[in-house]
What we know:
globular; 81% helix; 0% strand; single chain; mainly alpha
Amino acid sequence: xxxxxxxxALWTLLGSLVVFVGILVYGTLIRQISARSxxxxxxxxxxxxxTFGLPEALLAAGLILFxxxxxxxxxxxxxxxxxxxxxxxxxxxxxxxxxxxVAAFLKxxxxxxxALAGFSKTSLKRALSTAVVLLxxxxxxxxxxxxxxxxxxxxxxSKQEIVDLxxxxxxxxxxxxxxxxxxxxxxxxxxxxxxxxxxxVIRRYFGIAIALIFNSLLxxxxxxxLPSAAPLFVLGACFTLAYEWSGSILxxxxxxxxxxxxxxxxxxxxxxxxx
Length: 275
């Protein structure tokens, strides 16, 4: 009994330590972002680059309204939606359409997407290494939010529909499609839409803090799964801070892809999760 109590206390201490480290890392990012923002205000240099304007704000408002309508519709469904291969393909095509539409709109408006999103600001290798470090720091914060959610909801599962679909899928083709969606399409499209565009527009008019909170809430709500809301909010906030701090959307895309990959590995090899 004494050994069990000691082991429990040790795990609690270790868990508290890693959560503290995560808070320390992201607190440092916040301080550096704040200092940089204050420096930009007082700096007098070359003319500022082209920024998002009213047309982008209207397009972002339309996307936000569409996402909120989808969230509202999901909560009015009497039973969970069963996703099929056709649904996955339709979701893939529709997501790519939105990304290309926004990108084409910005190009027609004269924006340099490469410079604005920071694609060329860092190398792919450096972006991935930064993504690994920041995701490691974010993981205890996400798990802490997950633990609070489980405790509050009485242990209700926080698995989303796509996770359940992966678990129940019977064909290799369907699993490959889910992997492509989760590891490639979702990180690129969601980071482009949520972090680069919607966050960028809100940040332009309301500042970093309000944009970060609203964007993270929208990101969590858009996944239409209440038990996952708190972890997804923390995840979205970490992605946004990573993008704001690094200045490159590649970093948050890398974090998103790694996070989804780890989830799929645990789904494919459940013994790892139990261990």
